[in-house]
Amino acid sequence: MITLTDAAIQHIKNMLDKTKNSVGFRLSVKKTGCSGYAYVPTIVDQVMPDDLHFIAQENVSVFIDPACEDFIKGVVIDYTSDNSIGLQQKRLIFINPNEKNRCGCGESFTIE
To answer: What SS3 class is residue 21?
Structure first.
């Protein structure tokens, strides 16, 4: 359903190591912003019973909110430098083949 680059896996592993009682990485989508939807990546300390689950590289547990499955099918998550908001910073980026538009600030998107 989604793919994580090696850089994203390393970043997530670092976050998991820093978060007490963490069990994995969870991705969901919420309605927000000027375009419609925003990605919500979180490090979780408990599993939601209906979440989709898979093991990514290096035994990283990934949980997907089933309500957003259609929004994120085929997404590639990378961790790289991003200067879309005018500041050079490292962050998770989401490359979604289903995106139709993204707002000017890069925080929200619409899908086809």
So the answer is: coil
Burial of 38 (0-12, 13-18, 19+ CB in 10 A): middle
Contact 103, 109 (CB under 8 A): yes
Alpha-carbon distance 11 to 51, whole Å? 22
Length of the chain: 112
CATH architecture for residues 2-104? Sandwich (2.60)
The pTM for the full model equals 0.83
* Domain spans, the chain: 2-104
pLDDT by residue for the chain (112 residues), tens digit each?
899 999 999 999 999 999 999 999 999 998 876 668 888 999 999 999 999 999 999 999 999 999 999 889 999 999 987 665 565 678 898 888 877 766 555 556 666 6
**Which residue in the block uniquely carries the two structure tokens 């090696």?**
6
